[in-house]
Amino acid sequence: MNNSFFSSKILLFGEYSIVLNSFGFAIPYNLYKGSLKLNAGKKNKDSQKKILEFIEYLKKKVKNLPDLDWLSINKDKKNNLFFESNIPQGYGLGSSGALVAAFYDRYVKDKISSEEKLTKNKLQKLKNIFSEMESYYHGESSGIDPLNCYLGLPILIKSQNEIQVTKMPEEKALGYGGIFILDSGTSSDTSSMVSLFFKKMEDENFNYMMKNQFIRYSKTCINEFLNGDINSMFNSIKILSEITLKNFQPMIPNKFTKLWDEGIRTDNYFFKLCGSGGGGFLLGFTLDLERTFENLRDYKKEIIYKF
């Protein structure tokens, strides 16, 4: 079988706003990736078991699924199919999305190739298929994670029915500022966080905050980032970080609330959620990476983009 690798993804902006049919912006992150392989060893038994359960789900529960090559699937199952990946699970990087993308690429008979011209209809069709497939992992899925992993390109989400492939602003390799991820040291359960979010949406004040503040500033950050207006984006990301700190507990792990608040008070860095929150990575923005990394020297961090 081919050993195509599918990268992880990072939702730079739009966590929780995209489930309310609003803006989001997702990018591939190639440091972490995964690939379908055969001949699972002892250390891969858990992955092998989960693949088998996923296949049974597709067989019994998914309705609008394209024709699958069941001959190849059954053959590969007998040869101990598994998903080899270094994408940490429960960290907001799309570990399930990469698996779904790899499965689609390998076993869908009449697939939409990631290398062909992607019309609006083709993008929407892919998103809908991926949404159905990934629902196995999260109970409900927008389909954006596997779409981003499959295409390996930045995706601008304007609504559930309006998505487009786009480009990142040119990165400055020697830039002083940038975007980074910080490891919280614990994983998270996406489905429980999403369920909690919808419970919070029943509160009138939280509902108002989401629709009139959180979504507004998420959209503003996306537009300013894509336009290369970094200084304006930092003013907006600070407000978004403040809104998140005030309203998104326990999506922000308790031990990081002080660190989150310190960044806002000092204007040194601003955090936002990376995915559903509750653990995994925090997403950080700073105009001075050297200073910020010195202040956060006790935490594991990775730069994902410089400006």
Compact overview of the structure:
This protein has 10 helices and 9 strands. It is an alpha+beta fold and 307 residues long.
Annotate the secondary structure layout.
Elements: E1 6-13, E2 24-37, H1 45-60, H2 70-78, E3 82-85, H3 95-107, H4 120-138, H5 144-151, E4 155-159, E5 162-165, E6 178-183, H6 190-200, H7 204-226, H8 230-247, H9 257-266, E7 270-273, E8 281-286, H10 289-295, E9 301-306
Antiparallel strand pairs: 1-2, 2-3, 2-4, 4-5, 6-8, 6-9, 7-8
Helix pairs in contact: 3-4, 3-5, 4-5, 7-8, 8-9
Task: Tag the structure with descriptive keywords.
alpha+beta; 10 helices; single chain; 44% helix; Alpha-Beta Plaits; 307 residues; Ribosomal Protein S5, domain 2; 2 domains
